[in-house]
Specification:
The protein folds into 2 domains: about 130 residues, no CATH class; about 90 residues, Chitinase A, domain 3 (Roll). The chain is built from 11 helices and 6 strands. The protein has a 4-stranded antiparallel sheet with strand order 4-3-6-5, sandwiched between helices. Strands 1-2 form a two-stranded antiparallel ribbon. A hairpin with a 2-residue loop joins β5 and β6. About 20% of the residues are buried.
Length: about 290
Amino acid sequence: MKKWMLALTLAGGVIALSACNQNGSTVAESNAGDITQEELYEAMKEKVGSQALQQLVYEKVLSEKYEVTDKELDAKVDELKEQLGENFEAALAQYGYANEEDFKETMKLGMLQEKAAMKSIKVTDKEVKEYYDNYKPDIKARHILVADEKTALEVKQKLDAGEKFEDVSNTYSTDEAAKQAGGDLGWFGPEAQMDPDFLKAAFALKVNEISAPVKSSFGYHIIEVTEAKEKKSFEDMKDQMEKELKSSKLTNEKINEIMQKEIKDAKVKISDKDLKNALDPAPAAPAQ
């Protein structure tokens, strides 16, 4: 997900907060005493109330003016699945999502915010053309990671002699995660969170070309690009390039600015005094 997306992960029962403020009804009984809906509401409000209210208000306000279709949402999730591969489910769990549907709720809100913010981002034709000229399509690659250059040269020699990449990876690679898939790293782009020396070397390769040893902060890599997405003509990709360029200009500060304007335009009022600050803008990140 893009760096500007707000952290809106909610625990499984948080949305029920909006329906809990009914005084007197009992939700749990025990010999030690009962728990009322009012008590539950107050407890949930204290723990996750501001976050839950923010998400509910944002989604209601934005959904009045913008639309994210199921097709768009599914495409975005499928893109993430392609990037993460077998690690998708583990990533959801790591970030606190109960399941894929839970994740989609947050993703949908992020996409609504993107559509709202993109309206205010302006780019010139010259900027779009420069972005296209520097654009590198995603590649799919595999690698074998070893500790020293001598071993890397030995690996390279075996591959050049025709030994299977999977077999050599299984014997030599110290990257246990990739090793399970024959060294496969899946699809990634030039801005992936990887070692910069590794990325530079990978994107310099042609499809089916095997690199010389590449030194990175992790050791020495032998890399092979197995597939690369097509870079079509500028005219065919102009709309995509303009959208990506605008998206690259989005920041958390810009999202906060737009959301405050949307809330003001919708005349949102919070009646619960304990949650009156739930929609305040997030503090700006400290200067580096």
